[in-house]
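Suppose you are handed a protein chain with no further information: no name, no annotation, nothing but its sequence. What can you learn? This example shows the usual starting point.
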Amino acid sequence: MISFDQITGHNKSIQILQSLVKLDQIGHAYLFVGKEGIGKKITALAFAKAISCINLSEDFNPCNHCPSCLKIERGIHPDIQVISPLNSVISIGQIRAIKDIIYWMPLVSKRKIFLIDDAHKMTIEAANSLLKILEEPPAFAVLILITSEPEFILPTISSRCYKISFLPIRKEEQVKILTRMNLGLDHRKLEEIVLLSSGSLGKALELAQNPEKLLEKIRLLEWLIMTTPENIISNTFAQSEKELTCILDSFLDFVEIMVLWFRDILLYQSGLPRELLFFPGRIDKIKEFARYYSQEKIIFILDYLMEIPERIEKHINPKILFDNFIIQLGG
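A reasonable first move is to predict its three-dimensional structure. Written in structure tokens, the prediction is:
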């Protein structure tokens, strides 16, 4: 069941939230910031439980036995609402629905709590509507905005929220956590999984439980390691139609690996310790790429890669994005 003590790797963030519960200093608005799949939403639900629980433990964990905790666990608590994107956006209609009920007194708890997941996906109209709520929130209301892309949240909204940051969990810690889960995978395989999860324990667990997806990611990584800057220039990066099809079928996974790869090249060029690299075992290949690309070019490539998920949400064909990526690499 969802509880603070079930969350691993975010001790500082959880201590802050538990202190707020202990002192009964619950604010009106919070912004939970961190990479996708890192544990923001489950922590927000644990916080909502702790705020609403009528039988908190001595360390201010929700009891998970009272009617309030059980209703939250089942997703049927009348004073707690979770708002998620519909068709890739949070619309003004969804925020207006919050506005329609937020000013009414809670039905069973002291507070009404609204979790807005992927808050960066609010339309401009929705964000402006939310801003009006944040300007004059009712005393009993708590809004928790959850985002992996805080740069897309209006500054006027961010400034009204108490920010809780969720940092990537260290690779060694992730391996220990996955080992304790007895997933039936050896240490080397768990290290590969953590390597490909970009610091997200949620993604690591998903890969561990999905062998086919894991193998697909490993194949994408191996293709990258086998290629050279010259292969990219000559447009032989994907050497067969079958390889190209596999890349396009797993395009977001491919983009994630590219981001990690070019990040490592940039870190190496900057003279940072090898221990900071995602792929320290591929240092010879990293050096080869580092000789070919300038730092300015790598930053340009990373900027392009980071924009790809948003472009895919706008239904731009992955083949077009892939072809443009190759052009950016060779330009």
